[in-house]
From TrEMBL:
Protein name: Guanine nucleotide-binding protein-like 3
Lineage: Eukaryota, Metazoa, Chordata, Craniata, Vertebrata
Keywords: Coiled coil, GTP-binding, Nucleotide-binding, Nucleus
Sequence ranges of Polar residues compositional bias: 523-532
A Pfam family reported for this protein in Swiss-Prot or TrEMBL: MMR_HSR1
The organism of origin for this protein: Orthonyx spaldingii
Segments passing through the bilayer: none
GO CC terms: nucleolus
Record's compositionally biased regions (Basic residues): 1-42
Domain CP-type G: 128-309
Region (Disordered), start-end ranges: 1-124, 470-564
Acidic residues biased stretches: 483-510
Gene: Gnl3
Biased composition (Basic and acidic residues): 53-83, 91-109
Localization annotation: Nucleus, Nucleolus
Amino acid sequence: AELRKASKRLSCHKRYKIQKKIREHHRKVRKEAKKRGHKKPKKDPGIPSAAPFKEELLREAEQRKQRLEELKQKQKLNRQKEHEKKRKLEAKKNAAKIKEKAEGKESSGKSKGKTNKPLNKNSKKSFCRELMKVLEASDVVLEVLDARDPMGCRCPQLEQAVTCSGGNKKLLLVLNKIDLVPKDNIEKWLNYLKKEFPTVAFKSATMMKDKTTEQVTKRRARVDFSETSQYFGSKCLLKLLQEYSKTQDKAIQVGVVGFPNVGKSSIINSLKGKRACNVGLARGVTKSMQIVHLDKQTKVLDSPSIIADPSNSALALALRSITDTEGSDSAGVLEGVNAIINHCSKQQVMMHYNIPDFRDPEEFLSLLAQKRGMLKKGGVPDIESMAKLVLCDWTGARIKYYSQPPGFQKPPPYLTEQKIAEMQDGFNLNSLEQQNRNTVQAVKHPSPASSIVFQSAGMTNGTIEENKVIEEGSEWGNMETSKEEEEEEEEEEELTESDDDDDHDEDDESQVQGTRKAKPGKRQTNPTNSKEQMAGNERTRSLSFSLDKPADEDDAYDFNTDYV
């Protein structure tokens, strides 16, 4: 049975009670109004006839009225003039816009859409432009390296640009995030890197106190800044820069460069002792050059991240690419996670994530998603979002992993002995080594058992010059235009074929007209053409199958067999 609506009828007793309450309320309101003295304003009685100088007073009153009216009219005229001026300006602006649009269309017709638009701040070209500004302006360049994979954070193009610039530019390596790597491994890396460039061990503050954080802590639960705001190695680096500025007898500019998420802005905040630059887990937070004054003699220039070249390996692109995991496609993220898992010890990954044995990275992601409750409809594990989360953990400061330095020292071809001596000139290397030892001892390091062994992919190639950058959007645009051109050519060919058929066979005119009246999306093809297409499809299928072979054949090093 259907539910009936509740009745709005009331009993007489209740209705009368409500009416009585309303009457009482109105009475109360009237009484309060009387007390306040809100009465109707009385009319002005005017000047009495018996008053002396009545005529003079009336004249003065009329004069006042006239003045007020004149003032009102003047104000009205001024407003009208202002409105007219605004309208004229708007009309001029609109005309200029229309002209610009017309000129733009003409120029695009002549030179197929070549426009000189200002670069978007998020574009790779603008990142390159800002990075080049920093490199040109700086006297000392700090290349920030992640201590977990220092070799993968080095960019040979940047190092070559600094060392071969011709000026008296110096390049220092800053080994950041030393608190995520075992002590022995840090010492090995410092001994390896100091033979090429002066290297500073550093642990930056991940979260700095400022006004905004203080306001948040007042409202919500208190945040413990003891561990996050601790930083080591800042005194050593500041002393090194100050000594160099004294040898040069001038104020120096220090450029901080590196790949995404290595901690460039965090190092500047640690050197300043407060939050001077924006920091975040997302990649590419810094989008333009920022100047921070440390003291009278030193300025620090924060730069956007170096853009990883597309020719790099899948591992390098996964860890060092500027594109954020949230915005990137799922296929690229899955490929990146696949490369990371293949370059790690399987047993250590299982121990860290506390999951059972898995055959491939997809199974690893599904097991992890099930464990953490990341499921889609029907209890299906959400592999894509889990892959993004894992990649964020590896690029951020959550996972403690380390890589071993190369067995033998082989400096890159641009680093000759003369260049190494030039880079080391002007710095007190003995005191630097001693201070590095002190910072390494002061920091709490994880044990090798609790961290994951990682095989580095070597140096990561980067694009510094703006001309060499390939924007993803422009590539897709070119692909689409080429596809459209191909479709147009095919349509023209079909039309010519149909015209030939008309000349040969007059009986087939109705069929040709039918094909012309058909929808533009559907096309009729000859049986010979369909056979050729089938053969082409078979070829593409065979190619795709050959590409989808297991990755065991390509991998030169298998960690699962060599791990003890």
